[in-house]
Amino acid sequence: MFLQRGKSVARARRPTSSDGKKTERRKSQRFHVAIPLEASWCGSDGKAEKADAIARQVNINGGLLEMSSYPEVGTRITLTNFLSAVTAEARVLATPSSREGVSQGIIIELVVPSEDFWGVGLRAKKAVFELHHLEKSLVAEGIDLRLLGEFREAVGLIRITASVVQRLRERQLQGAEDEDVHSLATMDRIRRATNLCRELVADLDSGKVNTRTKGLEELRKSLDQACERLRQKRPV
User: Fold this and answer.
1) Strand partners, 127
2) What is the pTM of this model?
3) Which of 60, 115, 133, 226 has the highest CB neighbour count under 10 A?
4) Which residues pair with 3 in a beta bridge?
């Protein structure tokens, strides 16, 4: 039993299986994100309250919000996604004083399940999750290792691009500099371009690229331009 604003509150425990392990009650898997939110609700005294929150684990039905101050269990709250300005209604299912394993925040359930409310953060996480499952299937079917490498590269590109987009939006909201975020994206392009050139060299050496291959002239011009720019950037 725990005291909550002068009341005796029983702390809910998650059900356990026969081997003593905690059983999962979520309707769908949660994904780790970092989405800035604003939560507003009506307190027990009837006054309007408001607090900043960070969504840490979410799915289409709700999630875990990290908050320094929070409403009581059962409270209806309004959430605003700072990155998209989209709002949603939710109910508080658990707080640190009401459920074992909940700390530094609250568990909420969206009144109307929504993937769109969480924005690109959740969609990108789900896409990468599904692609990893697809990768396992491709490995089981014995796909060419080189093609598998390209598949993994594509998955990595989705993850990095989604991260860059979210960070840029956060910096924009904070009015902060974003040069380091753009630098991260540029460094990843350089890494991918380097790997692609190595793959192209391998194709040339193996005879997979020949005079009948389309796009060679455009590729040559692009590489010439890139090499010229690189020579200009070379330190003296």
Assistant:
1) none
2) 0.58
3) 60
4) 8
Q: pLDDT of 52-68, one tens digit each?
A: 999 989 999 999 999 98
Q: What is the pLDDT of residue 88?
A: 96
Tokens of 70: 């929070």
Q: For residue range 135-148, what is the model confidence (pLDDT) as tens digits? A: 787 777 777 777 77
In sequence order, the 6+-apart residues with CB closer than 8 A to the CB of 204 are none
Q: Which two tokens stand for residue 72?
A: 């009581």
Cβ–Cβ under 8 Å, residues 63 and 72: no
Closest CA to 65 of 21, 14, 118: 118
| Residue 229 tokens, joined | 């720019």
Low-confidence ranges of the chain (pLDDT < 50): 1-12, 14-24
